[in-house]
Amino acid sequence: MRSMIALAVAAGTSQLALASSQDESKGFIEDSKLNVKTRMLYFSRDFRNNPAGTQSRREETGLGFLGTFESGFTQGTVGVGVDAIGMLGLKLDSGKGRAGTGLFPTGSDGRSQDDYSKAGGAVKFRISDTVLKVGDQFTALPVFATDDSRLLPEIAQGTLITSNEIEGLTLHAGHFTSLTAQEQTNRDSFGLKEANVVGGTYAFTDNLSTSLYYSKVEDYWRKYYANVNWALPISDKQGLVFDFNIYDTKSEGSAEYRAFDGDKLDNRAFSLSGAYNIGAHTFTLAYQKVTGDGDYGYGIDGGGTIFLANSVARSDFNAEDEKSWQARYDLNFAEYGIPGLTFMTRYVRGTDANVAGTSNGKEWERDVDIKYVLQSGPAKDLSFRVRQATYRSSDGVYYDSPSIDELRLIVEYPLSIL
Q1: pLDDT digits (tens, 9 = 90+) for 315-329
Q2: CA distance 229 to 289
Q3: Contacts of 234 by beta carbon, 8 Å cutoff, 6+ apart
Q4: How many domains does the chain divide into?
Q5: How far is CA 323 from CA 64, 153, 287, 396, in A?
Q6: Which CATH number characterizes residue 339's domain?
Q7: Is residue 207 within a helix (H) or strand (E), and if so which, with residue range?
Q8: What are the φ and ψ backbone dihedral angles of 9, each rounded to 5 degrees?
Q9: Which residues form the signal peptide (predicted)?
Q10: 351 vs 192, 290, 344, CA distance in Å?
Q11: Domain range for residue 326?
């Protein structure tokens, strides 16, 4: 791993910028930022066709607080700084028969805890436009991404180098040793032993970029990921965006994660989407396919590590041999005099999934998302969001039930203190 990090730094520093971020540092205190985000989340998942005697509904409400402090860097050739994370989750409503939404830790009695908290910190160093961060952090790499789909986000523990020495090129190299799950306080919630990642993104122009990443998770797998994103302006109010993603995953080591039939993973998962924007309207079509042995596997390397077009609210459409299509529509009401209000709906259908009991598994999902963000006043940036998902499958092998109706009501308020 040291050689990969050294390579990333060497590549990044081969063409130094004339004026670097470190040269422009104002100091540890002067560049500091302190933010607090409050999130209230109502989460309901209705398993409509579960057998008698099994849990048919999960329904809970929570209030989460996420505080982040990011110091500036000390002045000089090598800048030094610190980051800190503090989180608190409070249970507002739950019940023994309704627990299990992933919002709170669950006790041995099957009930959700009344509250939980977690915290972390990291030290960081900057030379020119290259930053080394060691400690607790959020990540958004396509081969190692922390998830933030519940009350509080996951936190990764490890080392990450980010280099922006060459204009248009961002390089990453990281070594991670544990992950804290969204609803847990245990720093090693997933049992991650070691994950090494390296890669980067290069923007050829303002409209064309590509990414290439590699990761190796001890006793699980190695992954390659590639992406091409091309935006094609047509006029001032019209444009096309094409996005291609592909993963190549293969089991390595003890191969603790296997296909449902016990085979080792050796698969490719790709998606291609095309979006047409005209004024307030965006129309998107996407196709996704998994080939080879096993599902596209992720989770031990972060709950957000699936940069595929048809990974949506409830399903990922990532089963072995599965093919899926998506049709999506977005509307921005700013064009109609209501800035801050957006609407999205989509439909995804998957077929030919090789899952336990059948080689022709089918599933579909329909999502609706409405969000409004206050644009001014004392509560500026306060947002209200409604997310509804309807999911159906040919049997219950995907997500414990063939029929799931899900509703999330989310209120968020980000507050910048410094």
Answers
A1: 999 999 999 999 999
A2: 18
A3: 240
A4: 1
A5: 37, 30, 8, 18
A6: 2.40.160.10
A7: none
A8: -65, -40
A9: 1-19
A10: 32, 11, 24
A11: 33-416
Q: In the structure encoding, which two tokens stand for residue 270, read together?
A: 């790709």
Q: What does R_g of the chain's alpha carbons equal in angstroms?
A: 22
Distance from C-alpha of 247 to C-alpha of 308, rounded to nearest angstrom? 9
| Number of other residues whose CB lies within 10 A of the CB of residue 75 | 16
For 339, the enclosing helix (H) or strand (E) is: none
- Cα distance between residue 121 and residue 123, in whole Å: 7
Which positions of the chain have pLDDT values less than 70?
1-18, 52-53, 255-262, 396-400
Q: What is the DSSP letter of 71?
A: -
Reported as a single tens digit per residue, the pLDDT across 18-39 is 679 998 889 999 999 999 999 9
State how far the alpha carbon of 339 is from the alpha carbons of 207, 328, 331, 387, 414, in Å: 26, 21, 11, 19, 18
Does the global pTM surpass 0.70?
yes
Is 86 inside a domain boundary?
yes
Residue 19, in any domain of the structure: no
Residue 150 lies in a domain: yes
* Residue type, position 320, single letter: E
SS3 335: helix
Residue 4 lies in a domain: no
Question: How confident is the model over 209-223, as pLDDT tens digits?
Answer: 999 999 999 999 999
